[in-house]
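Record now logged underneath.
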Amino acid sequence: MLSAKNLFQEILDDDDAFRLFCSIAASGESQGGWENGRIAALVPASQRALAPKIARHGADEDKHGRIFNALLRKRGLTPVPVPRETDYTMLLEQHGIGLAHEQLGREEPLTERDIITYLAHSRVTEQRASEQMRLLRKYFADHPDLGRAVRMISHDEDNHLAYCHEELLRFAAAGHGRTIQHILRECALAEIRVYRDVSLAVMGHMGRVLGWSRAKAAVLAAGIHAVHAYERLHGWRRMVTLAPPERRDALGGPAVPAPEFA
């Protein structure tokens, strides 16, 4: 029977599939760490109070990359190159979503509009990350090898999402509401396309590694397309709403260190 739990378990049980999964995850998290670090360094003077929170966001993402690499080392595995078609962060940038790496590589201060763009992009992508990690936590929170990592990363992603809600609401109260909603909608519609394409690419690579039959691959691809159809028609709206979070000042303290993996 095909289910999310069975698919994750199949990947977890195979060294090559697990190696690819962790490599893709580590690469994306590390890119997010670099991006947030650069944004924190370039925050405009009017928003300097945000810099520590953005830096904390980046530290968390960098920590997640180290955790995925540590999971590989624990099994005696090394990372593999990430196929370009599975690089979620790079593909979002190519679609014009978020702040470009070229801009972040310069030493020019960002504008308030840039910070709103960053927060809106993060609100959309952290929604996805939070949902994915909650799914993994549902199935593997008590797993002897993955449990601690899954629980910590899931907690962090929920914090990131809460922080984005809180800061975007602050900007909305200052008169930027229409701009925020425009950017959120643009980001959400682009993200669901990129997520579909990346999901298909990842499943294609996993299918070859795990020797899936054509029938199984076709069923999984159909499921990915069905999710995209739902998100295109209605599901994207969950990514653009803003509400006061239960977790207030979620990134107001220091980052929690990554756990040690024997």
